[in-house]
Amino acid sequence: MGNNYFKNKKVAIIGASGSLGCAYAQAFQQEGAQLFLLGRHVEKVQKLAQKTAAEYSLASLEIGSEESLQAAVEAIRSWSDQVDIIINATGFDVRKSLSAHSAAEIKQTLDTNLLGAVLLTKYFLPLLSDKASSTLVHTGGFADGRLAFPYYSVDVASRAGVFSFIEAMNRELRAEGRKKYITYFCPNAAATPSEAPYHPVWREMGLAISSPAEVCQALLKGIRKRRRVILMGAGTGLFAKINLLSPSLADFLLLNQYSRILKHYFAAAD
Questions:
Q1: Residue 86 β-bridge partners
Q2: Number of domains observed in the structure of the chain
Q3: Residue 47: which pLDDT band, with cuts at 50, 70 and 90?
């Protein structure tokens, strides 16, 4: 697993028109991977290709549309019989009390984060070659998805669902004797335009804000090491275990303090 680990690997990135999706594309391209990029806004991906002078195969994708999913799968199959790595960089979140959520916001959060991960797995997992190095990566949040932050209730529900879905799918793959697997990746808050308005919140909570390059480095390192769960942040994994074993202790150590900060920023949305 040296410096050439990703050289000539076939990598598909879903959500490549987003800030982190574009960063992932550039990182894998620099590692020598061959890329197939998918997103709702293909013109943004085309601009990325022009900017980096890289050759990418492209396709549009609406993850809520079965027709679009099937068309994307066929487009990838025409590009390569099998894929080594698939990255799901899509995501949607709402940061306010549940009473302030609209029904449309609740539906979009669950459709994008949870239903989207399930459908992408159903349609794209068969594209992965059955090797120990082949993985489909879903982007999560809240450590293992189960750090239940207030004012993120629906988002947390969707991420926890994705984590448990991945656990079940990896057991299903093992039961069927498959070598390929699914990865849960929780990045730090990133220095992207969409996340920038919330940086003061994270700083007050004492949480790290990472550059897109740092997020990419963590993702690629985790894939190289073939981790099923990739969590950024010092102590994140330990605190996730504390929360799982004793939510009251997690409240005492950090979450009560976090709740006060999050209330200050997001309760006014009511």
A1: 12, 136
A2: 1
A3: confident
Asked whether 8 and 32 are in contact (CB, 8 A), the reply is yes
Q: Is 214 exposed, middle or buried (0-12, 13-18, 19+ CB in 10 A)?
A: middle
Give the torsion sign (CA, 245, 98, 165, 217): negative
- CATH for 262: 3.40.50.720
Tokens of 137: 């990566």
pLDDT in tens, 59-104: 999 999 999 999 999 999 999 999 999 999 999 999 999 999 999 9
Residue-wise pLDDT for 117-146, tens only, equals 999 999 999 999 999 999 999 999 999 999
φ/ψ of 33, rounded to 5, equals -80, 160
**Per the domain annotation, does 3 fall within a domain?**
no
CB-based contacts of 108: which residues, under 8 Å, 6+ apart?
Answer: 92
Q: Has residue 1 been placed in a domain? A: no
Domain that holds residue 88: 10-269
The CA distance from 43 to 226, in Å, is 33
pLDDT digits (tens, 9 = 90+) for 180-209: 999 999 999 999 999 999 999 999 999 999
User: Residue 232 corresponds to which amino acid?
Assistant: M
What amino acid is encoded at 264 in this protein?
H
What's the sign of the alpha-carbon dihedral 164, 166, 172, 174? negative
pTM score, two decimals?
0.94
Domain membership flag for residue 196: yes
CB-neighbour burial class of residue 193 (10 A; exposed 0-12, middle 13-18, buried 19+)? exposed
Structure tokens at 181: 């697997």
Backbone angles phi, psi at 258, to 5 degrees: -60, -40
Has residue 30 been placed in a domain? yes
